[in-house]
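Async update (no meeting this week)

Hi team, since we skipped the sync, here's where things stand on the single-chain job. The sequence we agreed to prioritize is pasted below, unchanged from the tracker. I ran it this morning and attached the output directly underneath so nobody has to dig for it. Comments welcome in thread, and please keep replies under the output.
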Amino acid sequence: MSETPKFTVIDRRKFKAEEEQESKQPAAPAPEAPAPPSAGPRLVVSEPKSEEPAEKAAGTETEQELFDGLPPAPTAEESRQQKTAYDASSQRLEDLLRAQNPGVGAPPPIGFEHLVQQFYVSAMIQMGAGTQEGQRPRVDILGARTTIDLLGILAEKTRGNLTEAEDRTLQTVLFEVRMAFLELTSMISLQGVQPPPPPAQR
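Output:
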């Protein structure tokens, strides 16, 4: 079964129109409360519907199916207006921060290296880096694998479109996090150490 989670992109331009329609319709009855869970954890397996193909039931979707579920792309004018509003809002935030901290200078412009660094830090933290001395590392090995795979996708999709410095940064970071992942998984396999479960969501 594919581990890729399904997601839905919501067209925010339709929020206002939908809210107006909902205000004219009677409220739907509240769904019945689910039955209380039985004691202890249990595995829930979703059975595929017989009329659906096995591949689709397994959670795999083709690129065309994903494309069909997307809302229409914003027009060039909509994108321009949104970018202008975003820049103005960001500038207001900067002005507020500088008013609170007059000695703080303007932040450097965000570049590609910041994106790569963000993935690097996330992957290393998920593999237990940065744990304070005396504390047990909290490892999210599956989350780390996802973050590293995202870096791999970034490298694949940007191939040929990066400067030499950007490409070297990305390849170096990708090599380092993959090496750290290999070392960690080898240690888990050889020593039989089970990584702690991810923190419970509240």
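Quick observations from my side:
The two ends are 27 Å apart (CA to CA).
Residues 112-191 form one domain.
Reply here if anything looks off.
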